[in-house]
Design goal:
This protein is of the alpha+beta class. The protein contains two helices and seven strands. Helix 1 packs across helix 2 (about 105-110). It is globular, with a radius of gyration of 13 Å.
């Protein structure tokens, strides 16, 4: 997580401001994007997890950033530098693949070398 902001209903979110919030929300900016192999098809639909709490990408996936609705995540988990799980125990490959309209193998091989793998 790079930053977290509380944004008002109707505020534009993400690359090109194509997504508008339907209600007030906490939005985290996350340091990963399509340059790292994260699919642009995940825009406004892909699941992520922060400290085991479910969250969702909102707005377009940009080259180096994601915007994520973290309204359901406690504030203690939302500090700059906190990790965001894009694949793992709380975000399974088949869930991300389904959100992106593809298959698990494509999700796995697309992620770049800059993504930590454990």
């Amino acid at each position: 997580i790079i930053q977290v902001k509380t944004m008002k209903r109707g505020a534009p979110v993400g690359y090109s401001s194509t997504y508008r919030l339907t209600e007030q929300a906490k939005i985290a900016t996350v340091a990963i994007g399509y340059a790292n192999g994260y699919s642009r098809a995940g825009s406004s639909r892909a699941p992520v997890s922060v400290a085991g709490f479910a969250a969702q990408v909102v707005g377009r996936v940009s080259m180096d950033l994601l915007t994520v609705d973290v309204s359901g995540v406690p504030d203690w988990a939302l500090v700059p530098g906190s990790p965001v799980e894009i694949l793992g125990p709380h975000v399974r490959d088949h869930d991300l693949a389904k959100a992106c309209g593809t298959i698990e193998h494509e999700v796995l091989i697309s992620l770049g070398h800059g993504c930590a793998r454990r």
